[in-house]
């Protein structure tokens, strides 16, 4: 569905993303495929990388003008990375 380069760009948003998440109104997890408000996130790896508020996996990406944060995007990422 997406090429490797695009998947790597998306995946990079799940790491060291605290600032980006706190600036965004919505985030999504590509492990449990939930979207929710980033203020629900309470656990971080090294204070910088979000752990999902629902499943605890570090697979959370913020909304962005670079892509549409949709269920189909999260599912494509799950298929690629897990
Ligand atoms: Zn999750």
Features:
82 residues; alpha+beta; 3 helices; 5 strands; binds zinc ion
Topology, please?
Blueprint: H1 4-12, H2 18-22, E1 27-29, E2 35-36, E3 43-45, E4 49-51, E5 60-62, H3 71-81
The structure holds zinc ion.
Zinc ion binds at residues 29, 31-32, 34, 52, 54-55, 57.
Characterization of the model:
- The chain is an alpha+beta fold.
- The chain has one domain (4-81).
- The protein has helices spanning 4-12, 18-22, 71-81, and strands spanning 27-29, 35-36, 43-45, 49-51, 60-62.
- It has a 3-stranded antiparallel sheet with strand order 2-1-5, with no helix packed on it.
- The radius of gyration is 11 Å and the shape is globular.
- The model has no long low-confidence stretch (mean pLDDT 97).
Tell me the overall shape.
globular
What characterizes the major β-sheet? 3 strands, antiparallel
Number of domains: 1
SS content category: alpha+beta
User: Which consecutive residue ranges, at least 5 long each, have pLDDT under 50?
Assistant: none
Helix percentage range: 25-40%
Tell me, rounded to a whole number, the average pLDDT.
Answer: 97
* Bound molecule kinds, no repeats: zinc ion
Q: Tally the helices: what do you get?
A: 3
How many E strands?
5
Order of helices and strands: HHEEEEEH
Radius of gyration: 11 Å
Biggest sheet, spatial arrangement of strands: 2-1-5
Distance between the termini: 15 Å
What proportion strand?
15-25%
Q: Short description, anyone?
A:
The chain is α+β, with helices and mostly antiparallel strands and 82 residues long. The protein contains three helices and five strands. It has one domain.
């Amino acid at each position: 569905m997406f090429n490797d380069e695009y998947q790597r760009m998306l995946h990079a948003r799940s790491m060291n993303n605290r600032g980006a998440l706190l600036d965004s109104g919505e985030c999504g997890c590509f492990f449990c495929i939930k979207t929710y408000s980033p203020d629900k996130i309470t656990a971080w790896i090294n204070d910088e990388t979000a752990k999902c508020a629902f499943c605890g996996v570090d697979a959370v990406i913020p909304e962005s003008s670079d892509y549409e944060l949709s269920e189909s995007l999260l599912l494509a990422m799950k298929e690629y990375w897990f």
